[in-house]
Amino acid sequence: MAKAGRKFEVLVLNQIAPQGLKRFAPERYAVVREARSPDVVLVRSHDLHRMAFGTNLKAVARAGAGTNNIPVAELSLRGVPVFNAPGANANAVKELVLAGMLISARNLAPAMDFVQGLQRDAGDLEQRVEDAKKTFAGIELPGHTLGVIGLGKIGSLVAEAAIRLGMQVTGYDPEITVDAAWSLPSQVRRANSIDELLKASHFITLHIPLLEKTRHLVNAKNIEHLRAGSILLNFSREGVVDDAAVLKSLRAHRLRGYVTDFPSAMLLGQPGVVALPHLGASTREAEENSAVMAVDQVCDYLEHGNVRNAVNFPDAVLTRESPYRLAIANANVPSMLARISHAMGSRGINIHNMLNKSRGDMAYTLADVDSPVPAAALAELRGIDGVLAVRYLPAE
């Protein structure tokens, strides 16, 4: 908890939905737009890579899913969790994907451009409309196959919606979680590789994070496996598709259309490209859901040490069984838990209940103890080699 007389200072660097900010209890939190050393930084798109973080920093939260604008590795070394809001904007993205499929399948973008270019006082307006409509003839979705790359919350919702529209769905996700697998419609067919999915699909949609291994996941080599006349949709991240490969495929008439939420200079104005200005999460509902989710996770962490949806920490939730709690972030190395336990035991601090979780190089421990923890014990814990951060959270 915050020390008596001092509130947690929350630096907000973007426009965050008021429904989320209202969840910061005013007696515990001060929400500010400028601060030298805040306890929390709350962002959406603001780039934090050049930001100098103060010594008070305890958490960073993004009211959205992607964290490419946050120096996650740097913060991990300081024992600072980076929270996001996965799934909070899932329905908004799902609806935009469906809109993108319909826009491309029915050639709506060029059709609307044609109508906008008509002269309203032309005497042959009706005839010109009638003559042109065959140019924009499209296809219907039922019976066609949608390939979904990435079967998390968004991918699962897209797959379910496509099935309801009468489409066949093939999915590919080598890192699918157990929870995601349970929520996936049973009708989704599994592809064993991206190449297999590309060959089988009339529409392909991507729902994956941008990592080094996913950069240009659709590229000049595998795009050749596309069915002639297929449509590619990217509402994931800009770098997961190689724009040069897309342009080449469009010009070769293998790829019929490319719908993306990430305009690039290379693709602007190119036939077959529908580019939107990053509208995936731009709904009132998605912004509210993301803000509420991010704020609730931060508050639970600051007040109780619980971790939900941190991209660099393991999930760790422990029901309080004592008014005295320690939260310790440390390198995931052998004997660390024994050293932490020994440091407390040597000072007569009895551990009532403990939870230890790890994720990659990071480990995190929550310990409820039976008595107050003196400053000397906290200093000893912080001095253990490999311990990154220690927080003492006595209940008020």
Please state the overall shape, judged from the principal axes of the Cα atoms.
elongated
Number of helices: 12
Question: SSE order in H/E notation?
Answer: EHEEEHEHHHEHEHEHEEHEEHEHEEHE
Strand arrangement within the widest β-sheet reads 8-7-6-9-10-11-12
| Sheet/helix structural class | alpha/beta
Q: Fraction of residues in helices?
A: 25-40%
How would you characterize this protein structure?
With 396 residues, the protein is of the alpha/beta class. The mean pLDDT is 94. 29% of the residues lie in helices and 20% in strands. Helix 3 (90-105) packs across helix 6. The chain has twelve helices and 16 strands. The protein has helices at 18-21, 72-77, 90-105, 108-116, 125-132, 153-164, 178-183, 194-200, 243-251, 284-304, 336-345, 375-382; strands at 8-12, 29-32, 40-43, 59-62, 82-83, 145-149, 168-172, 189-190, 203-206, 230-234, 255-260, 273-275, 324-331, 351-359, 362-369, 387-392. It has three domains: 1-88 and 284-312, NAD(P)-binding Rossmann-like Domain (Rossmann fold, 3-Layer(aba) Sandwich); 90-275, NAD(P)-binding Rossmann-like Domain (Rossmann fold, 3-Layer(aba) Sandwich), CATH 3.40.50; 314-396, Alpha-Beta Plaits (2-Layer Sandwich). The strands form three sheets. The chain has a seven-stranded parallel sheet, sandwiched between helices. A five-stranded parallel sheet has the order 2-1-3-4-5. A four-stranded antiparallel sheet has the order 14-15-13-16, covered by helices on one side.
Pick out its properties.
Rossmann fold; single chain; Alpha-Beta Plaits; 3 domains; 396 residues; alpha/beta; elongated; five-stranded parallel sheet; seven-stranded parallel sheet
